[in-house]
Design a protein that fits this description.
This protein has 20 helices and no strands. By secondary structure, the chain is mostly helical. Among the domains are: 123 residues, no CATH class; 142 residues, no CATH class.
Length: 413
């Protein structure tokens, strides 16, 4: 749209400048044919004559920049099309020397208070400026969507697996178990285990009868004592579990607690136990089901972040908004922190210029080289053509005034 508007403005000014030149030619013809009628007409003729010369000279100069005047291959014309590669190289060198060297970038960045500006914006987010909310929402959502989902998810999963793989699980479990037993938080779990044992015993009584029957001798099976033995075993176990469930100080509970304390101690101090727990941890991590669960966890987190990011009211609201405002106020008010952040930003930008400056310069140079002569001519003419047509107009008028001055001087002398 801007290019079209610029092209239209340049074309309109070209018509004006050419029309003025034609008008000066017509005025010169009229003044030359009537010059004897009055001495003042000589001034008009001198003005028109010099204006034509000035206008034609500037027309030639302006036209010679972009094409051959009148299509004639005059030397040193069509300057831009013939030198487009050199123009690209010169522009790239200009960018490198004046904008993309680390020293220049650092010097320019030293004048900018990046941290202060960011702090003021973030601290002002508590107000009713919906533009800030919409901008932050759009920026965050676009940033998340622009990231490579598969690559980023793989990086996060790898980092998570690495951190979990380095975690010493056994001592942590031992400490948790010790703290839970010290505060009595294990007792509800122990009660649930006893109830589960009683229910399991009842549900599997037939299996116990079968096992006793298969392992009994022929005499026991013949006399039916195997069934009596199985019944006694089931009744004894059931009684033991019921007594343990009713008596908080039952010996079975004491034995279980002694076993748990031993387990907690081994988890914290026994290298062999810790190695077994680490092997279990590694096997769980390598399990395909765990990998799929981690993939699903990342996708769920990403979708939740995108959903929140697309809501302008949520981005700077709630706990996230409060944290954002606190960060902004700290950046705004803490001079030392602002200095540290600005120094970090300056180093990052200067480092980026040092690392990628040559690539940017090469990109500019290669891009200009890839344009055909007509493309670069049209783009430059659209960009500066309007001002160049003003040069033609000014040349016409200034030339006319010079002609009047010379005519006046010739009459006085």
């Amino acid at each position: 749209m801007i290019g079209i508007a610029a092209s239209g403005g340049a074309r309109q000014m070209r018509i004006v400048a050419t029309g003025l030149l034609i008008a000066m030619a017509a005025l010169y013809i009229a003044a030359r044919s009537t010059e004897g009628l009055h001495p003042a007409i000589g001034f008009v003729r001198a003005f028109a004559e010099a204006a034509m010369v000035g206008g034609l000279a500037d027309w030639f100069a302006v036209t010679a920049l972009f094409r051959h005047p009148l299509g004639l291959p005059i030397p040193h014309t069509a300057i831009i099309p013939r030198n487009k590669d050199r123009i690209g190289d010169t522009l790239a060198t200009f960018l490198r020397d004046n904008f993309l060297t680390p020293a220049v970038v650092a010097r320019r960045m030293a004048r900018l208070d990046v941290a202060g500006a960011a702090g003021r914006v973030l601290a002002a987010s508590s107000g009713g400026d919906d533009r800030l909310r919409r901008g932050a929402s759009r920026l965050l959502a676009d940033g998340l969507e622009a990231l490579d989902d598969e690559r980023l998810g793989g990086m996060i999963k790898s980092a998570l697996v690495q951190r979990v793989g380095q975690l010493k699980v056994a001592p942590l479990l031992g400490q948790v178990l010790t703290a839970a037993m010290k505060d009595g938080r294990h007792k509800p779990v122990l009660d649930a285990l006893i109830r589960w044992g009683a229910q399991t015993l009842e549900a599997n009584s037939a299996l116990i009868y079968q096992m006793v029957h298969e392992r009994s001798g022929a005499i026991l099976r013949f006399t039916g004592l195997d069934e009596t033995l199985a019944t006694k075993i089931i009744e004894g176990l059931d009684k033991l579990l019921q007594e343990a469930a009713e008596d908080p100080d039952h010996r079975l509970r004491e034995k279980v607690e002694e076993g748990l304390m031993t387990l907690a101690s081994d988890l914290q101090n026994d290298p062999a136990m810790q190695a077994r727990v680490d092997r279990i941890r590694d096997e769980m991590i390598a399990n395909p089901a765990m990998q799929r669960w981690l993939d699903g966890l990342w996708q769920a987190a990403r979708e939740a972040l995108l959903k929140a990011a697309r809501d302008p009211q949520a981005v700077l609201a709630g706990r996230l908004g409060e944290i954002t405002r606190q960060i902004g106020e700290t950046l705004r008010d803490d001079a030392e922190l602002r200095h540290l952040v600005n120094r970090f930003a300056r180093r990052v930008v200067a480092g980026t210029a040092a690392r990628y400056g040559d690539s940017i310069v090469k990109l500019v140079s290669d891009t200009v080289r890839s344009w055909d002569a007509q493309t670069i001519t049209d783009r430059l003419e659209n960009a500066v053509g309007r001002d160049l047509q003003y040069i033609r107009i000014n040349g016409t008028l200034v030339g006319g005034l010079v002609g009047v001055g010379l005519h006046t001087a010739s009459l006085l002398l």
